[in-house]
Design brief:
This protein has 5 helices and no strands. It has helices at residues 8-18, 24-27, 30-37, 43-46, 49-56. Helix content is 52%, strand content 0%. It has one domain (8-56). The longest helix has 11 residues, at 8-18.
């Protein structure tokens, strides 16, 4: 589920960095894990916004440097 105000690719990169492969089963169904591993879907498409917030925490995923 896209999160308003953020680039989905930046969010997906942050999720991949935080969510190790062995933790995918905590958040994704078997069919969703298979789609993700096959490159058919991104994590940002498969997770709910509250799950995304839980995984990335306070990390800045906007893609902006903040300078």
């Amino acid at each position: 589920m896209p999160v308003s105000g953020y680039d989905p690719e930046d969010i997906d990169d942050a999720l991949e960095g935080k969510l190790e492969d062995d933790r995918l089963d905590e958040y994704l169904s078997e069919s969703d894990r298979e789609a993700y591993r096959a490159g058919e879907a991104n994590l940002v498409d498969l997770l709910e916004s509250d799950e995304i917030s839980e995984i990335v925490g306070d990390e800045d995923v906007s893609g902006e440097s903040g300078d």
